[in-house]
Amino acid sequence: MATMTYREALNRAMDEEMARDESVVLMGEEVAEYDGAYKVSRGLLAKYGDGRVLDTPITELGFTGLGVGAAIAGMRPIVEWMTHNFALLALDQVVNEAAKLRHMSGGRLSVPIVFRGPNGPAEYLSSQHSQALASYWVHVPGLRVVSPSNPADAYGLLKSAIRDNDPVVVLESELLYGDKGEVPDEETLVPIGKAAIARAGTDVTIVAFGRPVKYALEAAAILEQRGISAEVVDLRSLRPLDEDTIMASVGKTGRAVVVDESWPAASVGAYVAHRIASERFDSLDAPVEFVSSEDVPMPYNHALELAVQPSASKIVAAVLRALYLEA
Amino acid sequence: MKKPDIELYWNLRNEMTRIRRFEEKTGQMYGLRKIGGFCHLYNGQEAVAVGFIGAMDHEKDKVLTGYRDHGHALAAGMDPDGIMAELFGKVTGVSRGKGGSMHLFDQDKGFLGGNGIVGAQIPVAVGVAFAQKYKKTRGATAVFFGDGAIHQGAFHEALNLAKIWKLPAVLICENNQWGMGTSWKRVSAVDDFSLMASAYGVRGEQVDGMDVLAVRDAALRALDDARNGNPVLIEARTYRYKGHSMSDPQKYRTRDEVDEYRKQDPIYLLEEKIKAANAWDEKLALAQDEAADAMAEQAVAFAESSPEPALHTIYEDIYAGVPFFMGGHDAATGRA
């Protein structure tokens, strides 16, 4: 096991897949000569050249669509969005093209493409640069969506995404890029569609994905001191969703807290809470608790922006509610 | 002046006639409610698809277009039976009844679709050209779109990308003068779309889109440029005889305007050229017309006699490999 950052793990995944398969190319803003806005593509230009690592103009719609076209013509492009906020400009190409071409062609076309970049809150970035937009992609049949919370999953899920024959959206996080973790030395693929038990427990299930998994684990450590055993399910894949793992855990604990850094309405977290309530009604000892971001645009002020988002203490409070315990 | 290639002229007449008769039949079938939804006919514009696509190398070149795609699909050599069956929504349709009129596909013919979002096919096509260049196929990609689409950011972003990466792409704006019910003159800053090429340092050319020979010549030049890494923008001035779609009452234009353009009908113009070359053959013309009618009749018969798709096919053609569905749906039973 090597210890590396989330950023390095993503880089290693792309490096290995580009070495393995010549049809893999990387394109996006600043990915080549600048080594990536967040340095995720560091060194790839030097290694693979400007035919395979391509700086694009600032035209999210244009280069995302270009990637889709390259994919239907037999390539495996990785399109890096500097952030998912900017991907809104490319929404048409993802929703109407990438996700639909197989279907509209009666199965004739394949769209093996990866769309990746940081999603969710960062710091001091205000309303346009700190949005958690998972729902935009998870809503859409024809896409797969993954959200790695640690370096090993970042590495293994991105490799699976690049090899997948369908369009895959990868939700990274600016605030996870520097996080370190152990990543297997040998080549490893994390399958898309399988959740992980990030921490085993017996009293309550905390379901989270992406960066909030860290808060869920922090909350579980705090709860342990109060004698409460929390199980943390890291979804890893949002579409498809590993309902088997979620339901097995809730079936065992009888209590569920769902955490999502998105806004509450029409969110992945709201959907997961609905599925648990439908599928595990008979095993639940309390209503499903939901910790989302506040239903407000992100403010710039640091105290305010932290107050908007899920936190370990908010999760602890939700767990205590689910257990009918005093805070 | 070079000697007219009479055989080519007759071939072009045949291709245009096939599209015209197919579309006339399509219009009838829509009237009989055999076809539903948005259905955009190509009558009047035949010279553009036939002139351009007929000049392409179908072994390696690719074609993409918008939702007015029947003509391009036929010009690319797609099977009329499969197209008509698709319009009927039958499982034997080229897209298994999933796409309909706007979404015809046949990658074996290099036809990568009929696209329903105005202008969205342009970046996709430039991406196909990217793959052609990357794989050194020497192929080129032609993408067709209308006078409405040229104002989309997708067009401008894609043309810039095609130029900076020297991609083998030809962008053909079929200016049929009406973006749905809006005259192109009311919504364009320029009165010559080929001028837009200069903003991106590419060659722009305007061509008479009612003259199939002029389109073909422009296509041969443009494809040659594109194969050498120089993308081209072509504006083909043309005209559609029918409404924007079948549900368009056409109150925005006069009968006289349509009649005026019918005097420049692309099939008629080509026939005049054949006659001027003393090569008119009434029997051959009649034989082509009858064969085109028979083709359209046969396509309808095939579509009529084809089965409807089974309901379980709603769970197919969404993902590669094992499909999955959110919401706890069981694909085997269709039940939640």
Describe it.
- The complex is a heterodimer of chains A (327) and B (336).
- Chain A has 327 residues and is an alpha/beta fold.
- Chain A has two domains: 182 residues, Rossmann fold, CATH 3.40.50; 127 residues, Rossmann fold.
- In chain A, 37% of the residues lie in helices and 18% in strands.
- Chain A is built from 13 helices and 14 strands.
- Chain A has a seven-stranded mixed β-sheet with strand order 3-2-4-5-7-6-12, with helices on both faces. A five-stranded mixed β-sheet of chain A has the order 9-11-10-13-14, with helices on both faces.
- In chain A, helix 1 packs parallel to helix 8, helix 3 packs parallel to helix 5 and helix 9 packs across helix 13.
- Chain A is globular, with a radius of gyration of 20 Å.
- The mean pLDDT of chain A is 98.
- Chain B is of the alpha/beta class and 336 residues long.
- Chain B has one domain: Thiamin diphosphate (ThDP)-binding fold, Pyr/PP domains (Rossmann fold, 3-Layer(aba) Sandwich).
- Chain B is 41% helix and 11% strand.
- Chain B contains eleven helices and eight strands.
- A six-stranded parallel β-sheet of chain B has the order 2-1-3-4-8-7, sandwiched between helices. A two-stranded antiparallel ribbon of chain B has the order 5-6.
- In chain B, helix 1 packs across helix 2, helix 1 runs parallel beside helix 11 and helix 2 crosses helix 8.
- The chains are: A alpha/beta (327), B alpha/beta (336).
- The interface between A and B is large, with 51 and 49 residues.
